[in-house]
Structure formats: C-alpha cells, structure tokens
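step: validate -> pass
step: tokenize input -> pass
step: predict -> running
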Amino acid sequence: MKKTKKGYLIILAIMTLVIGLTGCGKKDGAVSGEGTKGKVERIKEAGVVKIGVFGDKPPFGYVAEDGSNVGYDVYLGRQIAKDLLGDESKVEFVLLEAANRIEYLKSKKVDIVLANFTVTEERKEQVNFAEPYMKVALGVVAPKDSSIASVEDLKGKTLIVNRGTTAELYFTENYPDIKLLAYDENTETFQALVDGRGDALAHDNTLLFAWSYENQGYKIVDGNIGSQDTIAPAVNKDDTDLLNWLNDEIKTLTAKGFFKEAYDAELKNHFSPDTNPGDVIFEK
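step: predict -> pass
step: emit ->
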C-alpha cells in the first residue's frame, strides 16, 4: 500500500506539473498571438503613429509660437501619417533629444524617429534605418570676429557639441586635443556659443547653414567635415514590416518630388539664396 500510495503521489505531482506547464503555454500563446501582428497593423489599430522629432532644432523640427510642431522632419511626418492612416492629423509628435533617440525606439515610446538622424554603422547595430531623405556632413561655426579659420585652429580651444551626435563622436575620435563642451539640447548648445562659453560649435552642416544665415554675427569655418552621410527614418529592430513600408514610402515620395516640395516649404527661407537644394535633399 505504501508503494502504491507513493506511486500515486508521484503520478499526481507529474500531472499537476504538466497541467501547470500547459496553462503557461496557453498564456504565452495568447501573448505570442498578439505579438504576431505586424507593427503596421498595430499602428492602424491604434489609429495614430507616434513619431519622435526635435522640438528645438529649426528648421528641421521645432515648436512654433502656437505650440504646434513644425519643420522639415515634421512635414515628412504628417505625410507619413496621411499615407499610412489616411489622415495627416493622425500623428503624435513626441519631442526627444539627440542622446535619447535610440532609447525612445527601444522602449517603444515612438514608432518612428524623424529627428535629423544620421545613419552610422554603430547606430545600425541598434536600430533599422529606412531609405534616406536628406544629405549631411559636419560643419563648424564661430563668431565672425574670431581668428578661427579652420578646424586646425581649434586645437587647444573649446568646441561646443550636442551629446550623442556624430559631431561629438567625430571630434572625440579625430581631434583629442580639442576640448569638447557637450549639451543635451540644441537650445543650450547654441546659447553656449552666443554666451562665449566655447570658441566654436560643431553640428550638422545643414543646420549650421540655416543658423549662420539667420545669425549674421557668425561664420561657417568649415561646412564639409568628415564623410558625406545621409539622414533617414529609424525604427525598432523588430519592426521589419514598418521598415519595408517606409522604404517604399520614401522611394515613392522621392519619385513624386515630395522632398523638393518640403524643401521649398520648410527649408528654403532659412538658407541663403545660393544654396543648391540638391546638396541637401534627394530629388527625383
């Protein structure tokens, strides 16, 4: 009897374990079932696409006096919402900084990042970039009365940069004898230059073309530093269907001349009249 009872208890324990595991399997299956939906389908079900943009980087992404989001990246974001959800107003713009663009994608705070995001090999290890929609290199701007005439003149001086940008990475790797002063927000970065906390400022050349044109007391020291790179939408590594959709979208918009339209609407008045749009955007 003791052996029979012991055997019965063992069988009962095994059955309880099996039932427990089966229950867990069903629960996981339900979660997995929800997870099988593609990102595009989930965005359509939500009825809104969340796009990360800058709030202080005119003319690419900034907040107007009436509180609305405007700029070249925002212009593209509204078009994406229109083509994806049938209504350009079905977009939620989420403000972010250069240093947290990847984090916002990984934590799913946004579906897409359109924040002057330069494509680099290091970033491609963490996020997926779609087809590019803008060209970019690095530039340096300094006060007009400054003796700085080239990047070499910055050795031993202080260069202001944004934290987490290609400018910070480039000068850290290539010019260790230039002291870097880094800030998170673009507003802080440019104010630091105006206040004289640094001798010059490095950023995307496209932004500096606009800023120096609107701030006549400053000059472009060098507007073509480093490699010629591209700016593209970025998505989470898991969202391959959204990546494919964006690739088709960017190709279609380029073929239609959309980016020239966006340039004329959001960038043209911020650049000097002799700026060639083809140096900034991809045209059909």
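step: describe -> The chain has a mean pLDDT of 89.
step: cleanup -> pass
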